[in-house]
Structures are given as structure tokens and as C-alpha cells.
Amino acid sequence: MNIKSIKTLGDLKKAGYQAKSIKDELRENLIQKIKHGETTFEGVHGYENTVIPELERAILSRHNINLLGLRGQAKTRLARLMLNLLDEYIPYVEGSEVNDDPFQPISRFALELIKQKGDDTPISWLHRSERFAEKLATPDVTVADIIGDVDPIKAANLKLSYADDRVIHYGMIPRANRCIFVINELPDLQARIQVALFNILQEGDIQIRGFKLRLPLDIQFLFTANPEDYTNRGSIVTPLKDRIGSQILTHYPTDIETAKRITEQEAKLVDLQKKTVIVPDLARDLLEQIVFEARKNDFIDAKSGVSARLSITALENLISTAERRALISGDATTMLRLSDFIGVIPSITGKVELVYEGEQEGAAVVAYNLIGEAVKSLFQEYFPKIEKLKKQDEETPYDELISWFFNLEGGFELLDDLPETEYQNVINVVTPLHAILEKYQPNVPEDEVYFVKEFVLWAMVEYQHLSKQRFSEGIHFKDPYGSFISGI
Questions:
Q1: Rounded to the nearest 5°, which phi and psi values hold at 472?
Q2: How many helices (H) and strands (E) does the chain have?
Q3: Which of 468, 333, 345 minimizes the C-alpha distance to 411?
Q4: pLDDT tens per residue across span 328-385
Q5: What is the distance of C-alpha 264 from the center of its chain?
Q6: SS3 for 36?
Q7: CA 413 to CA 426: how far, in whole Å?
């Protein structure tokens, strides 16, 4: 259909245009995508077998939808991606505030215009990108904002009585007729405002300052809500919940590979960073493992959740930490180091809600410990298991490394800002590390060897075979018992 040539209601009739509701429009376009094997919600990972099938069923059922989940679970992204299921253009009566369908007008303006001009009624076209309205529910939202109010300025300019419905100024919902309308954080909306949505969802009535208008609005409603808000700030009133067709529970990624795809897709890195900093696969796994550890940590409030934005901003901070070191040392490229993970602590502390015991520990300490827990969890996937305490005369693959530190006076220092060559020379001093990698990880890429060696050192600390102390310029490793035995 050539929309440029269709400028009047008569042209639209001749073109054979068939009007349909937005829910039917979404349904039909979804059916076509499913039949052709197309991805319906591009860029959303980890929901292929859970959330997306439920969302597709809700669309096929022509339901209004509530997405219920913790922060950082792609609720708003899913809502915005529904735009892709709309027709590219739809016609509306030119000048209409509520996007009147030329074949099924609902506003007084459109009805009178069509009555007056008939087939000569001017038609405009609305692109799908303009068919999305979003409102964040905050305590200051009013009925006037979302539904409408009497406009005294309009009444004065048009010299109308307040009894005339033309004095009404429509709010966001009527103006979103034939569009997707999203209310984010629905429980935050005051109960009396939620009540104002009852008739709109069910009967299509709106009530403004004594006016009861029969406006059969054609809207696809999507709501998002966080379970935490039900107790902290409010709740969804039961009659409103009853009018929402489908409630879909979202969730966090269940495996590291999915989490890595999300982080890589969302992280905002410039080309210079990608060229300067080499990131080992182990480092990416470790970064995601930190988030998994945070979601089960006793010091962090599980009900609040740990957003996927944590790993995204942490990756950005992590690479910037290595980039800054390269700029200081003058290295053209640098391999990410495990000690660079100290740079992700600011990304963690602002994104986790601590319980009382966590507050006592301190956010920075909790964040630092999460890095250690992540190292400990991943270590067993790459190297033989090691116990915190071994039996007397029992041999382990790490005895030579532990003995090396036992016989080392003063410990071993690894400074943060060492140039690449010096850093490698310092790591090479710990000779037993080479034998461990040769035996258990012989296929580690050459440029990732030093990260893995440092990874082994951190793991020895977590299993209490070495001790580690952080100071302003780096990290100090030493045998945890040598000084005690020697009396120093």
C-alpha cells in the first residue's frame, strides 16, 4: 500500500484498508513471525524457554500484561521491543488528539469532521515508533496526568461552558489510543490512581471532572512491577490486578554463558579500549561469577535482587582500570590482570542492598569478599580441588607452590601499575606456577598465562594456604603460617 498517495478517507476506502485493533495487530504480526521462524524479541537472552513463550501466549490471547520481576530483568526492554510487532504505519484522522481510526472514530473532533467532510476527511499516517507511551509511576502522578482534566484556558479561548466536553484536556492514556502504553513500577502508583484505570481496562469508559465519556480506547497495556515494592512502597490493588490478563514472572540469567552474552551486548566500550585491553575468557567468567555470588550472599538482601546492570558497569570499570594502567606505563596493549578486579568494587557497592550484618561489614569489604568467593567457585572448574586443611603427609598438586612461599622471607609483592614486561617478570619469579599450568592447563593461550597464574595465587588465599594483604599500591602475598612458626 502506497501511503503517500492516500491522503483522504475516500483514498483509504479505495485502497481497501481494513481497520483492526492494536491487540489484533500484535497478534497477527506475531503469528507471521512465529510461522517464519523469526526472533520475536531480539537482544533478550535467557528467556527463550521461559518468559518469551509466556509473553507470546499473552499476545496471542490479546491480554493486557504485567511483567513482575526484580530490577535489571529486562522488563522495560521487553515492553519496548513489542513495537516491532506493530504495523509500520497506521492511518488516523489528521489533527486528532487521540489518533482516531478513520473507520471507527471515538472523539467528538473526529466524528464532527467526518460528518462534515465525509470522504474528503484528511488522513495522516502514524509510524510505529510513535505508538509507544511510557509513564514511570511516582507518588506525584495525578488522574489529570494520565486520564485528563478540564482545561480552563481552552474553555476561555473557545468561549465554551464547563458543561461542554470540548473543554477537556486529554491525559496520557487517551492520547495513547491505538498505541502500547507502559506504566513502570505499578505498585508505586497511588491506590486512588490505580482505581481510575479500572474502567479503562475493562469497559473503555473514562471519567473526568463529572464528565462520563464513552471512549472505547484501543490500547495495549503493559505494566511492570517489582515484588520488593509490594511491601516497601505499595501494592497493586486487587481489582486492578484482576483486570490484567496475564502476569509474567521474569528472572535473572541462570548460567554464566547467558550472562556473558548480555554483558557483552550492553557494555558501552569504545574502540580504543577494545584495542588496548585484552580480556581473557576466564576474566569474563569471573566477572559474571561475582554477580552470581552476590545473589546468594548472606550479607546482601536477596529480596532486592542484584541487577544485570552490575556486571555491565563492572566490565566497563574493569577494562577502564587496565586502560588507565596502560596509559600510565605507555604500553600499547595490556592483558587484563586479576588485580584489576579491585577496580570493579565501586560498581558493586552502589548496586547491592545490604542487610544489617552487611552494613556492619561495610559495602567495600563485602564487594572485595565477593571477588574472592568468585575465584574460589571457578577454581575447581580449572584445577584439581583443594581443601582448606590437608591431612598430615597427604600430597597435593600445590605443595611445591605452598613450600615456595613458606621458604620466602618477606613475602611476594605485586604492584598494580607495573608495566606489562615488569609484571610478567615478577610473576615468573614464582616458578612453581609454571609447573601447575603445564600439568593442568597446558592449552591456555600464551597471552592469558599470567592472568591464570595470578588466578591460582588468589585461589590459594581463598583456601587459606596463602595470605593476601591489600595495600595502596598493590597486593602482598605470603605464607600464612611461616611468620608464626619463625616467631617473626
A1: -60, -30
A2: 24, 16
A3: 468
A4: 999 999 999 999 999 999 999 989 999 999 999 999 999 999 999 999 999 999 998 8
A5: 13
A6: coil
A7: 8
